[in-house]
Amino acid sequence: MKYIGNDYPKSFDNICKSYKYSKVFLLPPWEEIYTSDDERYEKYEEAIIIHNHLEETYSSYGYNLIEIPKGSVENRVVFVTEQISI
Fold this sequence. Notes:
Elements: H1 10-18, E1 24-26, H2 44-60, E2 65-67, H3 73-85
Parallel strand pairs: 1-2
């Protein structure tokens, strides 16, 4: 992911193209519930930038991206479970 400015060896790029997950679930930043803490130290605005970089990176490798809709934990679990079974 180029967001943090790291350079990756060519082998990393080849591995990402060769070994892929069949689905990638993305949870977009959700401002109403977003909080910063010791593990998530980014501000909400930074979370948006990171999310966009993740989406761009996964897309560039041809991953099937599935955005998990906002909602209750229970509804999100149902959504993921249904997507896994497709």
